[in-house]
From TrEMBL:
<dbReference type="Pfam" id="PF00106">
    <property type="entry name" value="adh_short"/>
</dbReference>
<dbReference type="InterPro" id="IPR036291">
    <property type="entry name" value="NAD(P)-bd_dom_sf"/>
</dbReference>
<dbReference type="GO" id="GO:0016491">
    <property type="term" value="F:oxidoreductase activity"/>
</dbReference>
<keyword id="KW-0521">NADP</keyword>
<dbReference type="InterPro" id="IPR002347">
    <property type="entry name" value="SDR_fam"/>
</dbReference>
<keyword id="KW-0560">Oxidoreductase</keyword>
<protein>
    <recommendedName>
        <fullName>NAD-P-binding protein</fullName>
    </recommendedName>
</protein>
<comment type="similarity">
    <text>Belongs to the short-chain dehydrogenases/reductases (SDR) family.</text>
</comment>
């Protein structure tokens, strides 16, 4: 094995055989989700690509096969998942539990980035719905299966929530007391769209902390991590340039092309969190941790370390879900 906690981390040499493991990655038909799946499947895992667009998903799976899923590698399977509707997110998790008897790793990767402020019919802003609430429902519905898998001798069950270092910029003074907090449009921020995205990414970190606390309280040997993947040139980041347009969009596109890393390298931190042996070898060190590339335990901004805020987020999320008829 190579050095699995350094910037020289390489999935091809620093993680072992993943044969027999079942891994689920949300938002995997492009960007770092796609390359995360690629790395894990090449080590032998059966990896589910969960997303809302079946046509794009199937095309991505075909592309994965062409780019190098060889005999002896794992397989990639499509799972339909609509995170913008918590009822559908719950249904997708229930369907998964019907077809699989184990789940070793869940990587919550899907996200909306910088989009216009919008509150759909359920009354929760779409960025918070997709990036936090949908994953909250999906993860909690999968927890019984994750816990059962964790009971097996030699198991290594993990939940990975992909956040962002944007929490360092905007992650201060946030609250999650009620629907109004969830739906804050951050109109006074210099970039309201960026601030809304940052709120959801702080939620990812806080969800990680509170979920880990609850699992520890139960004695479930599951490791939950959040992470910053790095600054990556993906379809999502280029979409930011297109959405902004004009001079700002052009500058963002230029920086993306010249200074951002590739999705292949950008996925390394997610792969580390999902599979690096050093994480399981040091569970108390990594439980609830926030990782910067690659595998470096870091502080996720001021709000990301607040235990009371994590509990507030969890409580309000459950209350809002009950209001729209979703029970967990």
């Amino acid at each position: 094995m190579g050095s699995a906690s350094s910037k020289n981390f390489n999935p091809a040499t620093d993680i072992g055989d993943l044969s027999g493991k079942v891994i689920l990655v949300t938002g995997g038909n492009s960007g770092i989700g796609y390359t995360t799946i690629q790395h894990l499947a090449r080590r032998g895992a059966k990896v589910y690509m969960a997303g809302r667009n079946q046509e794009r998903g199937k095309a991505a799976i075909d592309r994965l096969k062409k780019e190098g899923l060889e005999p002896g590698n794992g397989e990639v399977v499509w799972l339909e998942l609509e995170l913008s509707d918590p009822r559908k997110a719950k249904s997708a998790a229930e369907e998964f539990r019907k077809v699989e008897k184990r789940l070793d790793v869940l990587v919550n990767n899907a996200a909306l980035i910088f989009v216009p402020h919008r509150i759909p019919e359920d009354g929760i802003q779409d960025v918070m719905m997709v990036n936090h609430v949908g994953h909250f429902v999906f993860t909690n519905t999968l927890l019984p299966l994750l816990k059962e898998t964790a009971k097996e001798t030699g198991s290594d069950v993990r939940i990975v929530n992909v956040s962002s270092d944007i929490v360092q910029v905007y992650g201060s003074g946030l609250r999650f007391r009620n629907r109004e907090d969830f739906n804050d449009d951050h109109a006074k921020a210099w970039s309201p769209a960026m601030a809304r995205h940052a709120r959801s990414k702080v939620a990812n970190v806080l969800f990680t902390k509170e979920l880990q606390r609850r699992l520890d309280e139960e004695g479930a040997p599951i490791i939950v991590l959040s992470l910053h993947p790095g600054t990556i040139n993906t379809e999502g980041t280029m979409g930011v340039a297109t959405w902004n347009g004009g001079v700002i969009g052009a500058i963002f596109a230029w920086f993306s092309e010249h200074f951002f890393t590739t999705p292949t390298n950008g996925a390394y931190n997610s792969v580390f969190a999902a599979s690096a042996p050093v994480v399981r070898a040091n569970p108390e060190k990594y439980k609830g941790a926030y990782l910067r590339p690659i595998g470096v335990i870091s502080t996720p901004g001021k709000d990301g370390v607040k235990t009371d805020l994590a509990k507030e987020l969890w409580r309000t999320t459950e209350e809002l879900l009950k209001e729209i008829g979703v029970e967990l």
